[in-house]
## 1
Amino acid sequence: MILLSVAIPCYNSEAYMRHAVETLLVGGEEVEILIVDDGSKDATYEIGKELEEQYPTIVRVIHQENGGHGSAVNTGLREATGIYFKVVDSDDWVKEEGLLQVLELLKSMVKDGVNLDMLICNYVYEKVGEKRKKVIHYRTTLPQNQLFTWDDVSHFKLGKYILMHSVIYRTKLLRDCGLKLPEHTFYVDNIYVYQPLPYVKTMYYMDLNLYRYFIGREDQSVNENNMMKRIDQQLFVTKTIIDLHDLYKIKNKKLRNYMMRYLGIMMTISSVFLMKIGDEESCRKKDEIWEYLKNKDKRIYKKISRTMLGAASKLHSRAGQEFVETGYTIARKIFKFN
């Protein structure tokens, strides 16, 4: 029985993908490792085939024409045969001891017939040049070592939102919610963690540092310069999230509020980078994204724009811009997200 399918989207990943795969091998045949070569121009596919030949019952390589990170995740989800599904980026890795604990839990859930929709674990920023690693945990937000629902969740603090690094979804749930990420687009991991949430009824939180999130390469999508260059893709993802759900139709208030705050963060990030670019076109795009939200749902627009960051993000004054940029700089230092 395959408990967990892990998709590893790879594009020109020859320098680091082997490490990602090797940290997953400790799971043995209970883990299915799907290396999705997204049209690489280096030795990614060859390394994948070598690993597949070494571990034919665990590793499978899938080659496709370049479609971007979202396309590779879509392929992994389509090919997955495990009961649960996780994405591990090719420059990241997992802690082997933590993975073994996760597998033991999933095995017991399946054995006991427990319908677990989403497992949440901590993740660690492996930031280049940083000796002290920042751990993102949920100890004050989520009940530990027990099955729970949205009713049992406390307030999510800034920087402690559920990200792709921290979740393992039930594979069937992802398929049932119709998850299909946009192709040739960065930042689709936000859609990956946001779209399934209304379908998630049961959760479990393990306070262990499973996922190691490498950050610091200049070519990474979260690099500040790259985020400004790709601002149109950030805006596209934000608009997609706006359109995904009618939040006021979500009956559970805690879930609705969490999703609204997540959307608020997306709006703020888009606004901040447009303000950092600072030209006339960026100013127009900032107004457009807020108008887009307003036209979609005036109630959500009002609620988000009344928050401190939301209000500042809408300003055109130098004071508003300085406020947002100062907040962004502080958040970067605290949470080390790029």
## 2
Amino acid sequence: MCNAYCISFGAINLKPEEIKGKRVIEVGSYDVNGSLRSLVESYYPAEYIGVDIAEGPGVDVIGKAEDILDRFGKESFDIVISTELLEHIRDWRDSIHNIKNICKAGGIILITTRSYGCLYHGHPYDFWRYELEDMKHIFSDCLIEKLEKSPSKGVFVKMK
């Protein structure tokens, strides 16, 4: 699930040379109202896999974020994208652990999520809100290249 601000953040911060020939996974890929997939695929990745808990547009593999490390293995992707997912996962710590671990050393993680002030939007659940300081803390073991607050009441981060 994405919005125009997420797509803009991805378009500005994901470069063709970072993606060409690389393995990409999108965690939380169900396309409700927009996706980075067509943009990223236009940069010719070697593979693009969309994972979500239900079948639908943009979903190649059905599964939970909590299970992606077991399913795909450690350091199996060059780029991990997750837009508007973290607020919907009760056990976000496990999911973040898995996202970090399926990404290869030196790979790219791009995440967007909701911040305080965003209204409840269960798809099917809505548990959390994050702020810039939360992202700094959660990803303190990563090299944060870009961290910004979105006008749409969200937080966006790109890191290695």
## 3
Amino acid sequence: HKVDILGTQVSSIRSADLLAAFKSFIQQKQFIQVAITPANSILAAYKNKAVQNLYNISDYVLCDGVPVRWAAAFLNTPIVERITGLDLLPDLVAFAAKENFSLFLLGASPGVGERLKEVILQQYPNCNIVGIYVPPFMPVFDATENKKMVDAVNAAQADIVLVSLTAPKQDIWIAENLVKLDVHMAIGIGGAFEVAAGMIQRAPVWMQKSGLEWFYRFLQ
């Protein structure tokens, strides 16, 4: 089920059902794109129809921001659960370790991926992280760098690639390289790498529920 927020179709799904769907898609060797959309992504899509179209053809567009959920409730089409990148990443790691699905970490700042891998393996020694690649910061990747990114992902033969390039940039990159990627699932995970690696603290629960998580991260 999807809910229309300013023309962007946002998925209304619970985390447990989402992971069950992921398992089915990967086992069937189907490719899916997952976008995680805070309010700024919804607004970017509203202003740019090409961005909105890539969200609307994605398999799942998850409700990240509290304001997005508020908007859905205001429209009398409530979204059953807010699923942020910060919530999804630890669940996804546990899921991948349990089901023996391999992960590739793409993006974030230098050193973050390596630190996150250490943290993951401390908790899940059997988790199969098959590669890490950190592209240089560019508003738009040139052809040479883009090829390096795609080649790095494909050489690792991962089941799932987690892309941390900020939204909607990460979602645009996935959509533009969809046919080149030899993976089963690509997820634009946002800034979750730093938090999961313990390099940035997550906001207190009351701030998360009040729609102030962005402000807490801004302060840090």
